[in-house]
């Protein structure tokens, strides 16, 4: 089995420790990092030769697993033509073909596509679209945003302002962020109806402040890094109607939920809702490259075009990178050909069967499953150093945060590997001290 010499591993980790920041970590933190030399299918191979079954799909994006021959070929073929060309004043087949496919699979009213660099940037773009839309309609005071608590929309300045002030991990910056409007997060769980009382907070917020609100931004059905909560599709449908009543745009942040993760291609489909603006990313490229997109209606795009200054004011240097567009198109076509709905439904059944008993552990507050997402919510935050080491020693890669231990595996995972993931998670969680 291929591995790096022990001395090389030590040198690599030593340099990493002294010079490289990792996401949400200290430069010289105690939580270990593990050097990876290759990945294949659902397995990550470490430099010391150990293999880990990936329960995270690399933060939810590698839906086809790693080193997939179809996606590899798409990258190689495009590389022979061009790796990149500026998108200002130029276009190219991968971008046009990808946009055509995105319009085809998205809710029918979303016909205008803006390519961005990452999920956070896609959210920034959506927020700017909403503000420019109302400016063009001569309502410039509508320049703030409404959202719900327990949400997470990214780490850039605008995106941070619509994240939960506590669970969104950005409280340190509160005084520097734009002040937005927050409604209570819905208590009606997925699969349950939503009452008027459930809607009261959002209704009052929009009724009292719609003159200042450009858009309501929500993660449809699944609130991701802000709490991994699953809420009623009825809530989303009612929120759509409230936005229409109070002339507020609806932004659907589908970055984590898009491309099948919740059991629908896009989570807003659970409520048969079409947003005015939709953000996608993560699984867009199948985990190969960084690319995102913001889709909107012709009403929004044409209004922006007709307003001052007559153009949309955003333009990333690497916008619509041909390599990323080519592999994204290949990834979506691969989904189309893979019976992903059946696979995600089966993963949901296995996760539910294998994790539901964890609710009997005294340290567990809740267990919930939707699509290819399984969540165990604890009463107390986990010890990241200890729990990470336990998972790696058991041969799996699971990355909890806060009180949440969760699984979002690649869609290609087989039952044996999925069962092992669930068994290890159950065992490790069951051994956490009360």
Kindly state the percentage of residues in helix. 25-40%
Low-confidence stretches: none
- Average pLDDT rating: 97
Strand order of the main beta sheet, please? 4-12-11-10-7-5-6
Query: Termini, distance in Å?
Result: 40 Å
Which strand-content bin applies to the residues?
15-25%
**Number of discrete domains:** 2
Which class of the largest domain in CATH terms?
Answer: Alpha Beta
Question: So how many helices?
Answer: 13
Shape-level CATH architecture of the largest domain: 3-Layer(aba) Sandwich
Describe the main β-sheet briefly: 7 strands, mixed
Rg, Å, rounded: 22 Å
Number of E-state strands: 16
Describe the structure.
- The chain is an alpha/beta fold and 434 residues long.
- It has two domains: 6-64 and 339-430, Aspartate Aminotransferase, domain 1; 71-336, Type I PLP-dependent aspartate aminotransferase-like (Major domain) (Aspartate Aminotransferase, domain 2, 3-Layer(aba) Sandwich), CATH 3.40.640.10.
- It contains 13 helices and 16 strands.
- The protein has helices spanning 6-19, 57-60, 69-81, 93-105, 119-136, 157-161, 196-209, 233-245, 298-306, 322-336, 340-355, 384-393, 415-430; strands at 36-40, 43-46, 51-54, 110-116, 144-148, 181-183, 213-218, 222-223, 229-230, 249-253, 277-280, 292-297, 364-370, 373-378, 396-397, 404-407.
- A seven-stranded mixed β-sheet has the order 4-12-11-10-7-5-6, with helices on both faces. Strands 1-2-3-15 form a four-stranded mixed β-sheet. Strands 13-14-16 form a three-stranded antiparallel β-sheet, with helices on one face.
- The longest helix has 18 residues, at 119-136.
- The two termini are 40 Å apart.
């Amino acid at each position: 089995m291929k591995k790096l010499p022990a001395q090389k591993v030590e040198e690599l980790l030593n340099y990493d420790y002294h010079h490289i920041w990792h996401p949400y970590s200290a430069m010289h933190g105690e939580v270990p990092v593990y050097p990876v030399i290759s990945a294949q299918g659902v397995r990550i191979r470490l430099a010391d030769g150990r293999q880990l079954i990936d329960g995270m799909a690399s933060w939810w994006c590698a839906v086809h697993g790693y080193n997939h021959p179809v996606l590899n070929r798409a990258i190689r073929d495009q590389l022979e033509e061009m790796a990149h060309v500026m998108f200002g004043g130029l276009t190219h087949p991968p971008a046009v073909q990808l946009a055509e496919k995105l319009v085809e699979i998205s809710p029918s009213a979303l016909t205008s596509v803006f390519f961005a660099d990452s999920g956070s940037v896609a959210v920034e773009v959506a927020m700017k679209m909403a503000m420019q839309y109302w400016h063009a309609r001569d309502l410039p005071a509508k320049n703030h945003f409404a959202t719900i608590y327990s949400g997470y929309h990214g780490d850039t300045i605008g995106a941070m302002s619509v994240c939960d002030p506590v669970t969104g991990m950005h409280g340190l910056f509160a005084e520097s962020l734009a002040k937005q409007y927050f409604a209570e997060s819905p208590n009606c769980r997925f699969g349950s109806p939503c009452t008027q009382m459930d809607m009261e907070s959002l209704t009052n917020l929009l009724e009292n402040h719609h003159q200042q609100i450009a858009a309501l931004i929500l993660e449809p059905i699944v609130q991701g890094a802000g709490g991994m909560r699953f809420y009623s599709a009825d809530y989303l449908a009612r929120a759509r109607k409230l936005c229409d009543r109070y002339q507020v745009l609806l932004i659907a942040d589908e970055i984590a939920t898009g491309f099948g993760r919740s059991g629908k291609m896009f989570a807003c489909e659970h409520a048969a809702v079409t947003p005015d603006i939709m953000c996608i990313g993560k699984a867009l490229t199948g985990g190969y490259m960084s690319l995102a997109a913001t889709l909107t209606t012709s009403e929004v795009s044409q209004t922006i075009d007709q307003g001052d200054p007559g153009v949309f004011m955003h333009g990333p240097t690497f916008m619509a990178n041909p390599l990323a567009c080519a592999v994204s198109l290949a990834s979506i076509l691969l989904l189309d050909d893979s019976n992903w709905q059946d696979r995600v439904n089966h993963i949901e059944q296995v996760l539910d069967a294998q994790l539901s008993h964890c609710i009997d552990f005294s340290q567990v507050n809740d267990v919930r499953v939707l699509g290819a997402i399984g969540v165990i919510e604890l009463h107390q935050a986990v010890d990241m150093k200890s729990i990470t080491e336990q998972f790696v020693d058991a041969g799996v890669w699971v990355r909890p945060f806060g009180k949440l231990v969760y699984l979002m595996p690649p869609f290609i995972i087989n039952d044996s590997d999925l069962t092992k993931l669930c068994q290890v998670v159950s065992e490790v969680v069951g051994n956490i001290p009360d």
